[in-house]
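Hi all, long-time lurker, first post. I run a small reading group and we've been trying to get comfortable going from sequence to structure in the token notation. Rather than ask abstract questions, I figured I'd post a concrete chain and ask someone more experienced to write out its structure so we can walk through it together at our next meeting. Sequence below, copied exactly:
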Amino acid sequence: MDLMKTEPARRPRFDARMWQEVAYLLSSFPVGLAGFIVTVVLITVSIGTVFTVIGIWLLAATLLGLRSASQLERGRARALLGEAPGEPLPVQPTKTGRLSRALAVLSDGLAWRSVLYFVVMLPWGIITFTIGLVSVITLFPFLPWIAWGLTRVSRALVGALLSPGALNERVRELEDDRGTVVDSAAADLRRIERDLHDGAQARLVALAMDLGLAKEKLTEDPESAARMVSDAHSEVKLALQELRDLARGIHPAVLTDRGLDAALSSVASRCPIPGGVRVSVELDERPASAIEGIAYFTVSELLTNAAKHAKAQTAHVEVWRSGERLMLQVRDDGVGGAEERPGGGLAGLAERIRAVDGVFVVGSPIGGPTVVTAELPWRTRGGTATTS
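-- Answer (accepted) --
Happy to help. Here is the structure in token form:
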């Protein structure tokens, strides 16, 4: 996981970026001097009074202030070095109350790394200012290489001390993924509600009315009542089929009872691809039902796309286990050109897979073929996740 995204490597040369790097090097001394004085004074006073009532609060306020000041340094690196260090999450105490918040600040890793950064920045700022100024005046032909080398160290300092930790980044990703999963679940519930209301429910209401009329005609016109009962019987069959289709869309019984091999074979047999769909599933055991469900609906959606949009003549589905990952790949010989578009079907599949630490890759040149590969974490049935 990258804690800091950087621009592609470039050769040192005289250009606007070089002068931005020089500006960063020259400005590091005043920034380092101010940061060092504020940090040392406040930390010294805070530690000196830490055994008093005010000491804890002063130390927490100092750390919180330096943590906030680190945001300015990340902004300076972003503006002048082209770096994009991620912004950390706010300090999040486990309990409510001022004391809990103070303790959360005192145990925050980024706050203490900010202290170290502002202490180190003074000697490093003196070095960069001196070498940078001398290079501008007397070593001008070598300035691009000198600036490039010094700013590499500055980038490393910002990345190591001011970027969010891996756990912080993971929490942010999980929060984003949780929102995606919630939105997806809400959309699925709305779809189920709409299908029930417009399909089976409406058909059953009409069926009840027809049976009521047939009951009224039973003594007066038995033949007409018999025809109405016959029609109602046909309607019952249609309603049952709609309910079966709806249940299959939620979680098909064949997947629960027999696993991915049988479930995907069933999907392939119903897929309207002229040349058919070949299915190959090689699994020594079954993963957790949630992972099976994601794999099943991913393949179902991809085959639907291949038939409806890609106009494929043949398709091939492969599912296998690789270490602690469940792998699946769907290939078709359609027209190609498929890609993840915001709000599109492939984007929805990708979000669902990535929400469980999966990988989703689409390869679909114009003219085809289309190859979609997905990788899901292997989890044992019963909910215990294996380590990967």
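A couple of things your group might point at:
The first helix runs from residue 16 to 48.
The chain is about 65% helix and 10% strand.
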